[in-house]
Design a protein that fits this description.
- The protein has 484 residues and is α+β, with helices and mostly antiparallel strands.
- It has three domains: 79 residues, Phosphorylase Kinase, domain 1 (2-Layer Sandwich), CATH 3.30.200.20; 162 residues, Transferase(Phosphotransferase) domain 1 (Transferase(Phosphotransferase), domain 1, Orthogonal Bundle); 132 residues, no CATH class.
- It contains 14 helices and eleven strands.
- Strand 4 and strand 5 form a beta hairpin.
- Helix 3 packs antiparallel against helix 7.
- About 16% of the residues have low confidence.
Length: 484
């Protein structure tokens, strides 16, 4: 086989529709990979179109974690793509040697960044698997093999024959169904890869392809070992069975990972680390202690006067702190930047008070009501609870209430939004972020003050300062005992 401008060295891989060769590009003297379409069988125009789409799609993507395409062309009956030659092997081989948790998280973050670039360009990969993640010599992971990717804007579907494309071990449940696929399918596949990197095993295994597909659709995600449990919330949001329960996009996944990495940097684990002030260690809480450089033993009466004054000041200060802490816990607060889901990070009920300022809905026809109910339900499913403005569940239920003040559906809708906030608050409690949980509880209780879950969470997320008074009393008692 000859292709002008290239010297073929050897074959390095055979795929379903193409063979990869290691070659030298004569004009630049560099090694490249030539991917040549298999024309020995009955090659249809659709196969040619799919193969050429890989070149066009990947060549249009500019990202440090996406493989580089140099050239695409035809010679005689040969159709080829010239691309970057990667010498560091693939993730499948690297996993055989074991991948450390932090390295696994870094690989997932980099590939998620590549997917974010692809998805924003209207491209889904649909075959994210370890063999399609390669490594440069410096360890940089690259996403490759977009051979079955497709533009979301293309009207015709190259898989209209009904045969699904992808690797069953890493394939999202919806890929085995006749439904539209979006970027969340790639997020699912990347989540399966993360699980395998952490544990060394695929989460779903079976003797047949059909059984594997069924497990992806119905099987529960196996628990991680105790020392890896901190990764479970991330995995649950990546490998949820329903796309609506996953990260809404790769960018949200990246935000979550950066938040995890920041927390790890702020609270590094390991022996020899000094506990932070007020940090819980075992069953006790380490509190700061104060010592005097030059202890003085004054007269007993002066000690009593000083202690009494200190007690009054401490009690007054404690009361004020408790008061403001309660005010802080109960006051409406904006959700904190960096929480999930981030589709309404900057929104509060105060920022969007009902439908004031919105155009009136007249006449109040059944079609209008049905449209509002449908839009509200879709917003609930997508966790667009109170943002973005004029396109969220709170907005649509408020409009429904405006045209029908007696609407039970609207009132029930507000309660369902509150339930969603309770779920979000519980997730933040599981992440030990009480302030974030308190923000969600505050908004939820404005919608449904009688929600029992939210009321219990409000008590759990109140600032815990009750131990301060006892600490002061004990300190005073020790000082008095020493003085006597």
């Amino acid at each position: 086989m000859e292709i002008p401008g290239y010297e073929i060295i050897r074959a390095i891989g055979v795929g379903g529709m193409a063979t990869a060769y290691l070659a030298t590009q004569a004009s630049l003297g560099r090694q490249v990979v030539l991917k040549v379409l298999d024309t020995t069988n009955d090659v249809t125009s659709k196969n040619v179109e799919r193969f050429m789409n890989e070149a066009r799609i990947v060549a249009s993507l500019r990202h440090p974690n996406i493989i580089t395409i140099y050239d695409v062309g035809r010679h005689s009956d040969l159709i080829y793509i010239s691309m970057e030659y990667i010498e560091g092997g693939d993730l499948k081989a690297r996993m055989a040697d074991g991948v450390a948790p932090q390295e696994a998280l870094d690989i997932v973050a980099r590939i998620a960044s590549a997917l974010d670039c692809a998805h924003k360009s209207g491209v889904i990969h649909r075959d994210v698997k370890p063999a399609n993640i390669l490594f440069r010599k410096d360890g940089t992971p690259l996403l490759t093999d977009f051979g079955i990717a497709k533009k979301l804007t293309i009207d015709h579907d190259l898989t209209s024959t009904g045969i699904f494309l992808g690797s069953p071990n890493y394939m999202a449940p919806e890929q085995a169904e006749d439904v539209p696929i979006d970027g969340r399918a790639d997020i699912y596949s990347l989540g399966i890869i993360l699980y395998e990197m952490l544990t060394g095993n695929k989460p779903y295994q079976a003797d047949s392809v059909v059984d594997i597909i069924l497990k992806h659709r119905q099987g529960a995600l196996p628990r991680l070992p105790n020392d890896l449990r901190m990764f479970e919330p991330l995995l649950y949001l990546m490998i949820a069975k329903k796309p609506k329960d996953r990260f809404r996009d790769a960018e949200s996944l990246l935000h979550y990972i950066r938040d995890m990495e920041q927390r790890a940097a702020l609270h590094p684990a390991g022996p020899g680390r000094a506990a932070a002030i007020g940090e819980t260690t075992g069953s006790t809480t380490r509190m700061p202690t104060w010592t005097s450089a030059r202890p003085v033993a004054p007269k007993k009466t002066r000690i009593h006067s000083a202690l009494l004054l200190l007690l009054v000041v401490a009690a007054t200060g404690f009361g004020m702190l408790q008061y403001y802490a309660r005010r802080l816990a109960d006051a409406p607060i904006r959700p904190v930047e960096g929480l999930l889901p981030r589709v309404y990070v900057d929104a509060t009920l105060d920022a969007q008070p009902g439908t004031r300022g919105a155009a009136p809905l007249t006449p109040a026809s059944d079609d209008v009501r049905k449209a509002l109910i449908w839009l509200a339900q879709k917003s609930l499913d997508d966790y667009r609870l109170v943002a973005p403005p004029n396109d969220n569940a709170y907005f649509y239920y408020s409009r429904l209430r405006d045209i029908d003040p007696e609407s039970r559906l609207a009132e029930d809708g507000f309660k369902r939004i509150a339930e969603r906030f309770a779920v979000l608050a519980e997730k933040e409690m599981a992440r030990s972020d009480e302030r974030a949980a308190r923000n969600y509880v505050t908004i939820g209780l404005q919608l449904d003050p009688n929600n029992e879950a939210l009321r219990e969470l409000r008590e759990l997320t109140r600032p815990r300062m009750e131990g301060l008074f006892d600490t002061i009393i004990r300190a005073l008692a020790r000082n008095e005992k020493g003085a006597s």
